[in-house]
Amino acid sequence: MIQFKLVLLGDSSVGKSSIVTRFVKDQFDENKESTIGAAFLSQTIKLIDNQDNPDSPEEVSIKFEIWDTAGQERYKALAPMYYRNSNAAIIVYDITDDKSLSKAIKWVNELKERLPTDLDDPNRCIISLVGNKLDLVDDQESNRKISTQEARDFSIDNGLLFHEVSAKNNIGIKEIFQELGEALYNQ
Ligand code: GTP
Ligand code: MG
């Protein structure tokens, strides 16, 4: 079993806790309470490793130790305690809230200053940018405030993984963690 430390960062109410709750417990709460300080959860996934021996693929267990931080401004000073030594970071914004992408970009820049993130660094922290609440634009495209193109371009320019998801409808959540697990295992 290989363990990786993962941190979630992003503005308050973008859905960090909802993403983690969906991933760990497969539940969703319409009235989720805002996180105080941070919450710790863990979850294990399985990967198939067929790099060494393609004829007999091997199953590998990856355990994520997850720090779900509080997005409210008053907890901002605590964040470095949680992202310290992280192997991976999920930075979340809400695709129906324009301010939340600028906040996410600030987190990306802070992590790039404080953690190893260069693509060729074997100990780098792998960052995934995640736009949540995709369900809200399904019926009404005018709810969308952040285009996929803009967020994807930023991700490509900065070497980030990128997903648009819905914690509510369970769209794309597993994929975030599966992709991070594979990237971490293969780095
Ligand atoms: P803080 O803990 O304050 O940093 O917020 P957070 O980022 O953890 O947000 P949280 O998961 O508490 O979600 C905030 C609100 O958004 C809650 O009312 C959730 O039910 C709602 N929410 C979260 N994810 C989704 C989603 O995918 N779709 C919709 N429609 N609502 C969502
Ligand atoms: Mg929370």
Can you describe this structure?
With 187 residues, the protein is an alpha/beta fold. The protein has 6 helices and 6 strands. Strands 2-3-1-4-5-6 form a 6-stranded mixed sheet, with helices on both faces. A hairpin with an 8-residue loop joins strand 2 (38-49) and strand 3. The radius of gyration is 16 Å and the shape is globular. The structure holds guanosine-5'-triphosphate and magnesium ion. Residues 16-17, 34-35, 68 line the site of magnesium ion. GO terms for molecular function: GTP binding; GTPase activity. This is Related to GTP-binding protein YPT52. Keywords: Nucleotide-binding.
The amount of helix comes to 25-40%
Query: What is the radius of gyration?
Result: 16 Å
Query: Percent of residues in beta strands?
Result: 25-35%
Ligand catalogue: guanosine-5'-triphosphate, magnesium ion
Largest sheet: 6 strands, mixed
| Amino- and carboxy-terminal Cα gap | 16 Å
Oligomer: single chain
Uncertain residue ranges = none
Strand element count: 6
Net shape: globular
SS-derived structural category: alpha/beta
Mean pLDDT across all amino acids: 96
| Count of helical regions | 6
Major β-sheet strand ordering: 2-3-1-4-5-6
What is the H-and-E element order? Answer: EHEEHEHEHHEH
